[in-house]
Amino acid sequence: MDTIAAIATPPGEGALGMIRLGGPGARQVIASMIGERELSPRQACRVSVSDEKGTIDEGVAVFYPAESSPIGEDLVELSLHGSPYILSRALARALVRARLARPGEFTQRAFLAGKLDLAQAEAVCSLIRSRSEAAHRAALRQLSGGLSQAIRDCRRPIFELLVRVEACLDHPEEDIPSLTAEQACAALRQARQPLLRLADSFSQGRLAAEGARIALLGRPNAGKSSLLNALLGRERAIVQPTPGTTRDTIEEPSELQGLPAVLIDTAGLREGGVDGAEREGARRSRAELGDCDAAVLVIDAARRPEGEDRRIHDGIIEALARRRAPLVCALNKSDLGRAWEEEGLPNPVAVSALRGDGLEELRRTLGGLLVGTQPPPVLITSARHAAALQKAASELEEALSAVEYHGARWEDRAACHLREADRALGLILGENAGEDALHAIFSRFCVGK
Ligand SMILES: Nc1nc2c(ncn2[C@@H]2O[C@H](COP(=O)(O)OP(=O)(O)OP(=O)(O)O)[C@@H](O)[C@H]2O)c(=O)[nH]1
Ligand SMILES: [Mg+2]
Question: Ligand 1 within 6 A of 281 CB?
Fold first, then answer.
Protein backbone atom coordinates (compact mmCIF):
# COMPACT_ATOMS: atom_id res chain seq x y z
CA MET A 1 0.00 0.00 0.00
CA ASP A 2 1.48 3.32 -1.03
CA THR A 3 0.64 6.70 0.45
CA ILE A 4 -2.16 8.66 -1.19
CA ALA A 5 -3.19 12.31 -1.06
CA ALA A 6 -6.20 14.28 -2.29
CA ILE A 7 -8.18 17.44 -1.77
CA ALA A 8 -11.26 16.25 0.11
CA THR A 9 -13.40 19.38 -0.23
CA PRO A 10 -15.31 20.41 -3.38
CA PRO A 11 -13.62 22.65 -5.95
CA GLY A 12 -14.11 26.41 -5.57
CA GLU A 13 -13.65 28.94 -2.79
CA GLY A 14 -14.78 28.23 0.76
CA ALA A 15 -14.03 29.10 4.35
CA LEU A 16 -12.00 25.90 4.72
CA GLY A 17 -10.50 23.30 2.44
CA MET A 18 -9.13 19.92 3.42
CA ILE A 19 -6.32 17.71 2.21
CA ARG A 20 -6.24 14.08 3.25
CA LEU A 21 -3.15 11.91 3.36
CA GLY A 22 -3.48 8.16 3.89
CA GLY A 23 -1.10 5.21 4.02
CA PRO A 24 2.10 4.10 5.72
CA GLY A 25 4.02 7.24 4.72
CA ALA A 26 1.33 9.79 5.72
CA ARG A 27 3.34 10.89 8.72
CA GLN A 28 6.51 11.54 6.72
CA VAL A 29 4.56 13.36 4.01
CA ILE A 30 2.93 15.77 6.47
CA ALA A 31 6.28 16.23 8.26
CA SER A 32 7.85 17.30 4.95
CA MET A 33 5.09 19.89 4.52
CA ILE A 34 5.16 21.40 8.02
CA GLY A 35 8.86 21.56 8.73
CA GLU A 36 9.58 18.10 10.14
CA ARG A 37 7.38 18.59 13.20
CA GLU A 38 5.90 15.55 14.97
CA LEU A 39 2.12 15.58 15.33
CA SER A 40 0.56 14.15 18.50
CA PRO A 41 -1.99 11.47 17.62
CA ARG A 42 -5.65 12.50 17.43
CA GLN A 43 -5.01 16.11 18.43
CA ALA A 44 -5.69 19.22 16.41
CA CYS A 45 -2.30 20.90 15.90
CA ARG A 46 -1.70 24.35 14.43
CA VAL A 47 0.74 24.00 11.56
CA SER A 48 2.39 26.19 8.96
CA VAL A 49 2.55 24.56 5.54
CA SER A 50 5.29 25.54 3.14
CA ASP A 51 7.06 24.43 -0.01
CA GLU A 52 10.36 25.42 -1.64
CA LYS A 53 8.91 28.84 -2.58
CA GLY A 54 7.88 29.68 0.99
CA THR A 55 4.83 29.61 3.23
CA ILE A 56 1.63 28.32 1.66
CA ASP A 57 -0.80 28.72 4.56
CA GLU A 58 -1.40 28.30 8.29
CA GLY A 59 -3.81 25.54 9.16
CA VAL A 60 -4.76 22.69 11.47
CA ALA A 61 -3.66 19.07 11.09
CA VAL A 62 -4.95 15.97 12.83
CA PHE A 63 -2.98 12.72 12.72
CA TYR A 64 -4.84 9.40 13.17
CA PRO A 65 -2.47 6.46 13.73
CA ALA A 66 -3.44 3.26 11.90
CA GLU A 67 -4.89 1.53 14.97
CA SER A 68 -7.44 4.28 15.57
CA SER A 69 -7.85 5.54 12.00
CA PRO A 70 -11.15 5.21 10.13
CA ILE A 71 -9.28 3.78 7.13
CA GLY A 72 -7.17 1.33 9.09
CA GLU A 73 -3.91 3.03 8.01
CA ASP A 74 -2.16 6.21 9.12
CA LEU A 75 -4.30 9.17 8.13
CA VAL A 76 -3.74 12.93 8.26
CA GLU A 77 -6.44 15.53 7.72
CA LEU A 78 -5.07 18.98 7.03
CA SER A 79 -7.49 21.95 7.07
CA LEU A 80 -6.36 25.09 5.29
CA HIS A 81 -8.11 28.18 3.98
CA GLY A 82 -10.52 27.15 1.21
CA SER A 83 -8.63 28.68 -1.70
CA PRO A 84 -8.20 26.55 -4.82
CA TYR A 85 -4.70 28.05 -5.23
CA ILE A 86 -3.62 27.23 -1.65
CA LEU A 87 -5.07 23.74 -1.82
CA SER A 88 -3.54 22.85 -5.16
CA ARG A 89 -0.12 24.16 -4.07
CA ALA A 90 -0.31 22.21 -0.80
CA LEU A 91 -1.43 19.11 -2.69
CA ALA A 92 1.45 19.49 -5.15
CA ARG A 93 3.78 19.58 -2.15
CA ALA A 94 2.24 16.37 -0.78
CA LEU A 95 2.51 14.68 -4.17
CA VAL A 96 6.31 14.94 -4.08
CA ARG A 97 6.16 11.94 -1.73
CA ALA A 98 2.64 10.58 -2.22
CA ARG A 99 0.42 9.53 -5.09
CA LEU A 100 -2.87 11.21 -6.04
CA ALA A 101 -5.74 9.17 -4.59
CA ARG A 102 -8.28 7.60 -6.95
CA PRO A 103 -11.99 8.37 -6.37
CA GLY A 104 -13.19 6.61 -3.22
CA GLU A 105 -9.75 5.21 -2.46
CA PHE A 106 -9.79 6.21 1.22
CA THR A 107 -13.09 4.39 1.70
CA GLN A 108 -11.84 1.46 -0.37
CA ARG A 109 -8.89 1.15 2.01
CA ALA A 110 -11.29 1.22 4.98
CA PHE A 111 -13.15 -1.66 3.31
CA LEU A 112 -9.97 -3.62 2.57
CA ALA A 113 -8.84 -3.11 6.17
CA GLY A 114 -12.16 -4.59 7.36
CA LYS A 115 -13.37 -1.34 8.96
CA LEU A 116 -16.54 -1.47 6.85
CA ASP A 117 -18.20 -4.10 4.69
CA LEU A 118 -18.95 -3.25 1.09
CA ALA A 119 -22.59 -2.26 1.72
CA GLN A 120 -21.40 0.16 4.41
CA ALA A 121 -18.67 1.54 2.16
CA GLU A 122 -21.25 2.19 -0.55
CA ALA A 123 -23.40 3.97 2.03
CA VAL A 124 -20.66 6.59 2.42
CA CYS A 125 -21.22 7.54 -1.22
CA SER A 126 -25.02 7.48 -0.82
CA LEU A 127 -24.79 9.64 2.29
CA ILE A 128 -22.79 12.30 0.45
CA ARG A 129 -25.23 12.18 -2.46
CA SER A 130 -28.40 12.19 -0.36
CA ARG A 131 -30.65 15.10 -1.24
CA SER A 132 -33.73 14.26 0.78
CA GLU A 133 -34.85 13.00 4.14
CA ALA A 134 -35.71 9.55 2.76
CA ALA A 135 -32.36 9.10 0.99
CA HIS A 136 -30.47 10.39 4.02
CA ARG A 137 -32.30 8.04 6.39
CA ALA A 138 -31.65 5.01 4.16
CA ALA A 139 -27.95 5.89 3.75
CA LEU A 140 -27.42 6.42 7.50
CA ARG A 141 -29.02 3.08 8.25
CA GLN A 142 -26.91 1.35 5.66
CA LEU A 143 -23.72 2.98 7.00
CA SER A 144 -24.48 1.91 10.56
CA GLY A 145 -24.83 -1.69 9.35
CA GLY A 146 -28.64 -2.00 9.19
CA LEU A 147 -28.64 -3.34 5.65
CA SER A 148 -25.68 -5.64 6.33
CA GLN A 149 -27.53 -7.09 9.33
CA ALA A 150 -30.65 -7.64 7.22
CA ILE A 151 -28.51 -9.47 4.64
CA ARG A 152 -26.91 -11.62 7.34
CA ASP A 153 -30.38 -12.41 8.70
CA CYS A 154 -31.46 -13.54 5.22
CA ARG A 155 -28.33 -15.58 4.87
CA ARG A 156 -28.43 -17.55 8.10
CA PRO A 157 -31.34 -19.91 7.27
CA ILE A 158 -29.86 -20.48 3.78
CA PHE A 159 -26.53 -21.42 5.26
CA GLU A 160 -28.08 -23.66 7.92
CA LEU A 161 -30.09 -25.48 5.28
CA LEU A 162 -26.98 -25.86 3.13
CA VAL A 163 -25.10 -27.42 6.05
CA ARG A 164 -27.90 -29.95 6.60
CA VAL A 165 -28.13 -30.84 2.91
CA GLU A 166 -24.36 -31.21 2.63
CA ALA A 167 -24.26 -33.38 5.73
CA CYS A 168 -26.72 -35.76 4.05
CA LEU A 169 -24.50 -35.76 0.95
CA ASP A 170 -21.12 -36.16 2.63
CA HIS A 171 -21.99 -38.76 5.20
CA PRO A 172 -24.95 -40.72 3.88
CA GLU A 173 -23.84 -43.73 5.90
CA GLU A 174 -23.76 -41.86 9.22
CA ASP A 175 -26.69 -41.42 11.47
CA ILE A 176 -27.38 -37.78 10.72
CA PRO A 177 -31.10 -37.13 11.07
CA SER A 178 -32.02 -36.92 7.40
CA LEU A 179 -33.79 -33.98 5.91
CA THR A 180 -36.99 -34.88 4.11
CA ALA A 181 -37.91 -33.24 0.81
CA GLU A 182 -40.96 -31.73 2.53
CA GLN A 183 -38.82 -30.16 5.23
CA ALA A 184 -36.42 -28.80 2.62
CA CYS A 185 -39.29 -27.26 0.63
CA ALA A 186 -40.73 -25.58 3.69
CA ALA A 187 -37.33 -24.21 4.69
CA LEU A 188 -36.66 -22.92 1.18
CA ARG A 189 -40.01 -21.15 0.98
CA GLN A 190 -39.43 -19.55 4.32
CA ALA A 191 -35.91 -18.44 3.44
CA ARG A 192 -37.16 -16.83 0.24
CA GLN A 193 -39.73 -14.53 1.90
CA PRO A 194 -37.41 -11.95 3.48
CA LEU A 195 -35.26 -11.88 0.33
CA LEU A 196 -38.23 -10.96 -1.83
CA ARG A 197 -39.42 -8.38 0.69
CA LEU A 198 -36.02 -6.68 0.68
CA ALA A 199 -35.71 -6.85 -3.12
CA ASP A 200 -39.19 -5.33 -3.44
CA SER A 201 -38.20 -2.33 -1.36
CA PHE A 202 -35.95 -1.25 -4.25
CA SER A 203 -38.89 0.34 -6.07
CA GLN A 204 -39.17 2.73 -3.10
CA GLY A 205 -35.47 2.91 -2.43
CA ARG A 206 -34.73 3.95 -6.00
CA LEU A 207 -37.14 6.86 -5.62
CA ALA A 208 -35.53 7.84 -2.32
CA ALA A 209 -32.07 7.83 -3.88
CA GLU A 210 -32.77 9.21 -7.32
CA GLY A 211 -36.00 11.12 -6.82
CA ALA A 212 -39.44 10.72 -8.37
CA ARG A 213 -40.39 12.27 -11.71
CA ILE A 214 -43.89 13.63 -11.30
CA ALA A 215 -45.67 14.86 -14.43
CA LEU A 216 -48.53 17.38 -14.39
CA LEU A 217 -50.76 16.33 -17.26
CA GLY A 218 -54.15 17.30 -18.60
CA ARG A 219 -56.20 19.39 -20.97
CA PRO A 220 -55.10 22.88 -22.10
CA ASN A 221 -56.01 25.62 -19.59
CA ALA A 222 -56.76 23.17 -16.75
CA GLY A 223 -54.20 24.98 -14.58
CA LYS A 224 -51.12 22.71 -14.86
CA SER A 225 -48.65 25.59 -14.94
CA SER A 226 -50.52 27.36 -12.12
CA LEU A 227 -50.28 24.16 -10.06
CA LEU A 228 -46.56 23.80 -10.80
CA ASN A 229 -46.01 27.36 -9.58
CA ALA A 230 -48.19 26.82 -6.51
CA LEU A 231 -46.30 23.62 -5.57
CA LEU A 232 -42.93 25.31 -6.07
CA GLY A 233 -44.02 28.46 -4.29
CA ARG A 234 -42.76 30.74 -7.08
CA GLU A 235 -43.79 31.88 -10.54
CA ARG A 236 -41.72 29.47 -12.62
CA ALA A 237 -44.00 28.77 -15.62
CA ILE A 238 -45.99 31.23 -17.71
CA VAL A 239 -49.72 31.25 -16.88
CA GLN A 240 -52.22 32.76 -19.33
CA PRO A 241 -56.02 32.68 -19.66
CA THR A 242 -55.71 31.35 -23.21
CA PRO A 243 -55.36 27.57 -23.81
CA GLY A 244 -52.13 26.32 -25.36
CA THR A 245 -49.74 28.51 -23.32
CA THR A 246 -47.22 25.84 -22.39
CA ARG A 247 -45.49 24.20 -25.34
CA ASP A 248 -42.30 22.77 -23.92
CA THR A 249 -42.01 20.58 -20.82
CA ILE A 250 -40.62 22.41 -17.79
CA GLU A 251 -38.75 20.43 -15.11
CA GLU A 252 -38.05 21.75 -11.63
CA PRO A 253 -36.53 19.96 -8.62
CA SER A 254 -38.66 19.86 -5.51
CA GLU A 255 -39.30 17.70 -2.45
CA LEU A 256 -42.35 15.67 -1.65
CA GLN A 257 -42.92 14.22 1.84
CA GLY A 258 -39.18 13.78 2.35
CA LEU A 259 -38.64 12.38 -1.16
CA PRO A 260 -36.61 14.21 -3.78
CA ALA A 261 -38.90 14.96 -6.71
CA VAL A 262 -38.78 16.56 -10.13
CA LEU A 263 -42.04 18.30 -11.05
CA ILE A 264 -42.72 18.41 -14.77
CA ASP A 265 -45.20 20.86 -16.30
CA THR A 266 -46.37 19.72 -19.73
CA ALA A 267 -48.25 21.06 -22.74
CA GLY A 268 -52.03 20.51 -22.56
CA LEU A 269 -53.31 17.53 -24.53
CA ARG A 270 -56.05 17.88 -27.14
CA GLU A 271 -57.22 15.88 -30.12
CA GLY A 272 -55.82 16.76 -33.56
CA GLY A 273 -53.14 19.38 -32.80
CA VAL A 274 -52.23 21.71 -35.65
CA ASP A 275 -48.96 23.61 -35.81
CA GLY A 276 -45.50 22.11 -35.37
CA ALA A 277 -44.73 23.46 -31.91
CA GLU A 278 -48.04 22.27 -30.50
CA ARG A 279 -47.62 18.85 -32.05
CA GLU A 280 -44.10 18.56 -30.62
CA GLY A 281 -45.35 19.77 -27.21
CA ALA A 282 -48.05 17.08 -27.22
CA ARG A 283 -45.46 14.47 -28.22
CA ARG A 284 -43.32 15.45 -25.22
CA SER A 285 -46.34 15.34 -22.89
CA ARG A 286 -47.14 11.84 -24.11
CA ALA A 287 -43.50 10.82 -23.62
CA GLU A 288 -43.79 11.88 -19.95
CA LEU A 289 -46.88 9.68 -19.69
CA GLY A 290 -44.66 6.70 -20.40
CA ASP A 291 -41.66 7.86 -18.38
CA CYS A 292 -42.80 9.51 -15.14
CA ASP A 293 -42.84 7.74 -11.76
CA ALA A 294 -46.19 9.33 -10.89
CA ALA A 295 -48.57 11.85 -12.42
CA VAL A 296 -51.11 14.45 -11.47
CA LEU A 297 -54.03 14.67 -13.85
CA VAL A 298 -55.04 18.33 -13.62
CA ILE A 299 -58.74 18.89 -14.35
CA ASP A 300 -60.68 22.14 -14.60
CA ALA A 301 -63.46 20.97 -12.29
CA ALA A 302 -65.39 24.21 -12.47
CA ARG A 303 -66.40 23.28 -16.02
CA ARG A 304 -68.48 20.23 -17.01
CA PRO A 305 -66.28 17.75 -18.91
CA GLU A 306 -67.13 17.21 -22.57
CA GLY A 307 -66.47 14.17 -24.77
CA GLU A 308 -62.93 15.22 -25.67
CA ASP A 309 -62.10 15.97 -22.02
CA ARG A 310 -63.27 12.51 -20.98
CA ARG A 311 -61.40 10.75 -23.77
CA ILE A 312 -58.15 12.50 -22.91
CA HIS A 313 -58.58 11.98 -19.17
CA ASP A 314 -59.37 8.29 -19.73
CA GLY A 315 -56.30 7.95 -21.95
CA ILE A 316 -54.06 9.37 -19.21
CA ILE A 317 -55.67 7.25 -16.47
CA GLU A 318 -55.31 4.08 -18.55
CA ALA A 319 -51.71 4.79 -19.53
CA LEU A 320 -50.66 5.23 -15.88
CA ALA A 321 -52.71 2.24 -14.72
CA ARG A 322 -51.05 0.04 -17.34
CA ARG A 323 -47.63 0.97 -15.96
CA ARG A 324 -48.91 0.72 -12.36
CA ALA A 325 -47.64 4.26 -11.79
CA PRO A 326 -49.49 6.27 -9.14
CA LEU A 327 -51.93 8.91 -10.35
CA VAL A 328 -53.70 11.65 -8.44
CA CYS A 329 -56.53 13.65 -9.99
CA ALA A 330 -56.32 17.31 -9.01
CA LEU A 331 -59.82 18.79 -9.35
CA ASN A 332 -58.58 22.30 -9.87
CA LYS A 333 -60.27 25.71 -9.70
CA SER A 334 -62.24 24.60 -6.62
CA ASP A 335 -62.57 28.30 -5.76
CA LEU A 336 -65.05 28.58 -8.66
CA GLY A 337 -67.24 25.73 -7.38
CA ARG A 338 -67.74 22.21 -8.71
CA ALA A 339 -69.83 21.75 -11.86
CA TRP A 340 -70.03 17.93 -11.64
CA GLU A 341 -69.28 14.86 -9.52
CA GLU A 342 -66.00 12.94 -9.46
CA GLU A 343 -67.40 9.91 -11.30
CA GLY A 344 -64.89 7.33 -10.19
CA LEU A 345 -61.73 9.30 -10.87
CA PRO A 346 -58.73 7.70 -9.10
CA ASN A 347 -57.45 9.51 -5.98
CA PRO A 348 -59.36 12.78 -6.42
CA VAL A 349 -58.18 15.84 -4.48
CA ALA A 350 -59.92 19.21 -4.72
CA VAL A 351 -57.39 22.02 -5.16
CA SER A 352 -57.20 25.64 -6.16
CA ALA A 353 -53.87 26.47 -7.71
CA LEU A 354 -54.94 30.11 -7.62
CA ARG A 355 -55.63 30.24 -3.89
CA GLY A 356 -53.30 27.44 -2.78
CA ASP A 357 -56.12 25.31 -1.34
CA GLY A 358 -55.71 21.52 -1.11
CA LEU A 359 -51.97 21.50 -1.90
CA GLU A 360 -51.02 19.75 1.35
CA GLU A 361 -53.54 17.01 0.70
CA LEU A 362 -52.28 16.67 -2.86
CA ARG A 363 -48.71 16.29 -1.58
CA ARG A 364 -49.79 13.82 1.09
CA THR A 365 -51.80 11.69 -1.33
CA LEU A 366 -49.00 11.59 -3.89
CA GLY A 367 -46.35 10.89 -1.24
CA GLY A 368 -48.49 8.11 0.24
CA LEU A 369 -48.93 6.47 -3.16
CA LEU A 370 -45.22 6.71 -3.96
CA VAL A 371 -43.70 5.53 -0.68
CA GLY A 372 -46.59 4.05 1.26
CA THR A 373 -47.48 5.35 4.68
CA GLN A 374 -45.11 3.03 6.54
CA PRO A 375 -41.64 2.98 4.95
CA PRO A 376 -39.90 -0.39 5.55
CA PRO A 377 -37.13 -0.36 8.18
CA VAL A 378 -34.45 -1.27 5.63
CA LEU A 379 -34.61 0.10 2.13
CA ILE A 380 -32.64 -1.20 -0.84
CA THR A 381 -31.42 1.86 -2.73
CA SER A 382 -28.81 0.30 -5.01
CA ALA A 383 -29.45 -1.62 -8.22
CA ARG A 384 -26.45 -3.81 -7.39
CA HIS A 385 -28.02 -4.94 -4.11
CA ALA A 386 -31.44 -5.44 -5.70
CA ALA A 387 -29.90 -7.60 -8.45
CA ALA A 388 -27.98 -9.71 -5.91
CA LEU A 389 -31.15 -10.25 -3.85
CA GLN A 390 -33.10 -11.22 -6.97
CA LYS A 391 -30.34 -13.63 -7.93
CA ALA A 392 -30.38 -15.22 -4.47
CA ALA A 393 -34.19 -15.49 -4.56
CA SER A 394 -34.16 -17.16 -7.96
CA GLU A 395 -31.46 -19.62 -6.83
CA LEU A 396 -33.76 -20.58 -3.95
CA GLU A 397 -36.58 -20.92 -6.47
CA GLU A 398 -34.41 -23.32 -8.50
CA ALA A 399 -33.46 -25.23 -5.38
CA LEU A 400 -37.17 -25.57 -4.65
CA SER A 401 -37.92 -27.02 -8.07
CA ALA A 402 -34.92 -29.34 -7.73
CA VAL A 403 -36.39 -30.70 -4.51
CA GLU A 404 -39.90 -30.88 -5.91
CA TYR A 405 -39.05 -32.62 -9.19
CA HIS A 406 -35.91 -34.63 -8.54
CA GLY A 407 -37.32 -37.09 -6.10
CA ALA A 408 -34.58 -39.26 -4.70
CA ARG A 409 -31.45 -37.31 -5.79
CA TRP A 410 -32.45 -33.75 -5.02
CA GLU A 411 -29.72 -33.01 -2.47
CA ASP A 412 -26.93 -32.46 -5.00
CA ARG A 413 -28.72 -29.87 -7.05
CA ALA A 414 -30.33 -28.13 -4.09
CA ALA A 415 -26.91 -27.77 -2.43
CA CYS A 416 -25.53 -26.22 -5.60
CA HIS A 417 -28.30 -23.58 -5.76
CA LEU A 418 -28.08 -22.88 -2.03
CA ARG A 419 -24.35 -22.23 -2.42
CA GLU A 420 -25.06 -19.80 -5.28
CA ALA A 421 -27.73 -17.99 -3.23
CA ASP A 422 -25.30 -17.66 -0.34
CA ARG A 423 -22.59 -16.37 -2.67
CA ALA A 424 -24.93 -13.74 -4.19
CA LEU A 425 -25.72 -12.39 -0.72
CA GLY A 426 -22.04 -12.43 0.21
CA LEU A 427 -21.32 -10.18 -2.77
CA ILE A 428 -23.50 -7.44 -1.24
CA LEU A 429 -21.19 -7.43 1.76
CA GLY A 430 -18.12 -7.54 -0.49
CA GLU A 431 -17.05 -11.14 0.06
CA ASN A 432 -14.92 -12.41 -2.84
CA ALA A 433 -15.48 -9.14 -4.70
CA GLY A 434 -13.06 -8.99 -7.61
CA GLU A 435 -10.83 -6.06 -8.54
CA ASP A 436 -13.19 -5.00 -11.37
CA ALA A 437 -16.29 -5.07 -9.19
CA LEU A 438 -14.58 -2.94 -6.55
CA HIS A 439 -13.34 -0.53 -9.16
CA ALA A 440 -16.86 -0.15 -10.59
CA ILE A 441 -18.20 0.69 -7.15
CA PHE A 442 -15.51 3.00 -5.83
CA SER A 443 -15.01 4.93 -9.07
CA ARG A 444 -18.44 6.52 -8.47
CA PHE A 445 -17.13 8.18 -5.31
CA CYS A 446 -15.59 11.63 -5.11
CA VAL A 447 -11.85 12.00 -4.88
CA GLY A 448 -10.71 12.43 -1.27
CA LYS A 449 -13.48 10.23 0.18
N1 LIG B 1 -60.09 30.58 -10.61
C2 LIG B 1 -59.03 29.84 -10.84
N3 LIG B 1 -58.33 29.99 -11.96
C4 LIG B 1 -57.27 29.23 -12.18
C5 LIG B 1 -56.87 28.25 -11.26
N6 LIG B 1 -55.79 27.62 -11.76
C7 LIG B 1 -55.50 28.19 -12.93
N8 LIG B 1 -56.41 29.16 -13.21
C9 LIG B 1 -56.46 30.02 -14.39
O10 LIG B 1 -56.62 29.19 -15.52
C11 LIG B 1 -55.94 29.75 -16.64
C12 LIG B 1 -54.98 28.72 -17.22
O13 LIG B 1 -54.00 28.43 -16.29
P14 LIG B 1 -52.63 27.74 -16.69
O15 LIG B 1 -51.93 27.41 -15.44
O16 LIG B 1 -51.90 28.54 -17.69
O17 LIG B 1 -53.20 26.43 -17.36
P18 LIG B 1 -52.40 25.27 -18.13
O19 LIG B 1 -53.06 24.00 -17.82
O20 LIG B 1 -50.96 25.38 -17.83
O21 LIG B 1 -52.67 25.65 -19.62
P22 LIG B 1 -51.83 25.28 -20.94
O23 LIG B 1 -50.40 25.60 -20.68
O24 LIG B 1 -52.42 26.13 -21.96
O25 LIG B 1 -52.07 23.84 -21.21
C26 LIG B 1 -55.20 30.98 -16.10
O27 LIG B 1 -55.97 32.12 -16.39
C28 LIG B 1 -55.16 30.74 -14.61
O29 LIG B 1 -55.10 31.92 -13.86
C30 LIG B 1 -57.63 28.10 -10.06
O31 LIG B 1 -57.37 27.28 -9.19
N32 LIG B 1 -58.70 28.92 -9.91
MG1 LIG C 1 -49.34 25.64 -18.99
Answer: no
